[in-house]
Amino acid sequence: MSSPTSPGPLHLRGVLLDGTAEGERVGELWVTAEGRISLDPVPDAPTVADGAWILPGLVDAHCHVGIGPDGPVDLEEAREQGHTDAASGALLLRDCGTPVDTRPLDDDPRMPEIVRAGRHLARPKRYIRGLPIEADSPEELPALVAEQARTNPWVKLVGDWIEREAGDLAPLWPDDVLKAAMDAAHAEGARVTAHVFGEDALPGLIGAGIDGIEHGTGLDDTTIAMMVERGTVLVPTLINVENFPAFADAAGEKFPRYGTHMRELYARASATVASAIEAGVPVFAGTDAGGGIVHGRIVDEIAALAQVGLGPARAFEAACGAARDWLRRPGLVDGAPADLVVVDRDPRTDTDALRSPSLVLRAGVRLS
Ligand SMILES: [Zn+2]
């Protein structure tokens, strides 16, 4: 028998999903003693799934390991956050910015794989205190981006935030600086994304060639068309947009314009995301876990995306095969790490099937 933290050999049989809306075949696969998928039989492998639905690990495309409701947490709490995500089936995370270096957790077999964006980049007093690296002058941005891009596959910008004098959301960066920043990241082989709640920061960011937009509640027909043309992706974080009225309440007395603006963005958020989906913007599932959202809620975001216009099959894909492909990670192919989830019915017609996996394997190690 393998110990709880050692991988296979294991054998699984059932409907093998490639993580997209359509791809499936009935078949079997094995997990090697090294925790890799084998499509050839592996001897002495007990059957741990039979007649089930077998899918690649889910993806949380926007979360923060190392941030809690009160800001940065210590490494052991970050580890607990990662364990919670992985146990829920989210075996691949795109960390969208954290002040905690979580790389020492990478050899923990119960941690998900993390694709990192390093530290948030912002300007002084223009983001949550204690989280970002702050550029004293906006002209510093390209150099700060290059620095993050050298050690991370993604770079995270704060695109807009409340500006106290205006009393409302406002962009942080001028357009020419953004273009130089995107070029600096791309020269290092990294991709860039930005936190954006409002309207005004979007044309500059998308026009500069940014790769992704987070939240995107301020999108309109013009900026949606720009994203379609450039292939810019959107991670709407719908379960965190549910917190907009609370954000408005918290700041609305001091900054009434901001409060009104946030309520307006919230009121039309479902229609905004539906328009982006309808127009063909690639959308992925991200929870924004780490601040106001607890870890382990990827299925809630999948359900929210299904509701807002993706439907269950494409919402599943947005948190599985399509998202893995976008983050350049394999599915259930020979030799790939055995990161997989087993459920008892088709998650493409019933996303709730993902709430109670009968088996979760991370590099072949059984997490549930
Ligand atoms: Zn976030």
Largest sheet geometry: 7 strands, mixed
Order of strands across the main sheet: 3-2-1-4-18-19-20
Query: What structural category do the secondary elements indicate?
Result: alpha/beta
* Number of DSSP-assigned strands: 20
**Poorly predicted regions:** none
> In percent, how helical is the residue content?
25-40%
* Beta-strand residue percentage: 15-25%
Are any ligands bound, and if so which? zinc ion
Distance between the termini: 16 Å
Radius of gyration: 21 Å
Shape: globular
DSSP helix count?
11
Mean pLDDT, rounded to whole units?
96
Structure at a glance:
The protein is an alpha/beta fold.
Fill in the keyword field for this structure.
single chain; 368 residues; alpha/beta; seven-stranded mixed sheet; six-stranded parallel sheet; 11 helices; 20 strands; 24% strand; globular; binds zinc ion
Describe this structure in words.
The chain has helices spanning 75-87, 141-151, 175-187, 202-207, 221-230, 238-241, 244-252, 256-267, 269-279, 298-318, 321-326, and strands at 10-17, 24-31, 37-38, 47-56, 58-63, 67-68, 71-72, 90-95, 113-116, 120-122, 133-134, 154-158, 160-163, 168-171, 191-196, 212-215, 233-235, 340-343, 359-362, 365-366. The protein has 368 residues and is of the alpha/beta class. It is globular. It is built from eleven helices and 20 strands. Zinc ion is lined by residues 62, 64, 96, 288.
